[in-house]
Every structure is written in structure tokens, then in C-alpha cells.
Amino acid sequence: MVARRNDPEVADRGVLTLRERQALGYAALGHSNKLIAYELGLSPSTVATHLSQAAHKLGARSRVELIRIFQGAEEP
User: Fold this and answer.
1) pTM strictly above 0.70
2) What is the end-to-end Cα distance of the chain in Å, rounded?
3) What span, in angstroms and rounded, lies between the C-alpha atoms of 55 and 8?
């Protein structure tokens, strides 16, 4: 068995940092903050901070809305 990285495709949303885009990419795949933290080598609280900052920048009020905006389903 061979393991390789399979990071989600992350579009550049301009105002978001790389880590915010990475965390959002994993969140859009349905991963929990704890799993995202493991995959990115961060603490779960850091992941929560990245998602919170991204939500603030994009004007989202919930995780679901944040993911929809990020995926382009809604205009920020």
C-alpha cells in the first residue's frame, strides 16, 4: 500500500489566506475541525480560528453558509 497526499482543490478566493483556504477545502469535504487539524498539522483551535476568520471575511454566519460561499454557490 502506498500513501500519498490528496489535498482538496482549493480555489484562490483573494481575501483568504492559504491556511484559511486549506481549512475550508477540508471543511467542504465534510471533515471535522479535529480531522482538519490532523491533516494540516495544526491544533483544532487553530483550525476553528482559521474558519472563523474566513467566515468573517466572506460574511458568512454559519459553517454551511461559509462552505456555500466558498464553493461559489452564493456570492460573498
Assistant:
1) yes
2) 42
3) 19
Residue 14 to residue 8: CA distance in whole angstroms: 17
Mean pLDDT per 10-residue segment, the chain (76 residues): 63 78 96 97 98 94 94 61
Query: Burial letters for 12-25: b for 16+ Cβ neighbours within 10 Å, e otherwise?
Result: ebeebeebbbbbbb
Q: Are 36 and 27 in contact (CB under 8 A)?
A: yes
Instruction: Please choose, from the candidates 67, 55, 58, the residue with its C-alpha nearest in 3D space to the C-alpha of residue 29.
Output: 67
Q: How many Å separate Cα 10 from the centre of its chain?
A: 9
Helix and strand totals (H; E) in the chain? 4, 0
Q: Given this model, what pLDDT does residue 47 score?
A: 98
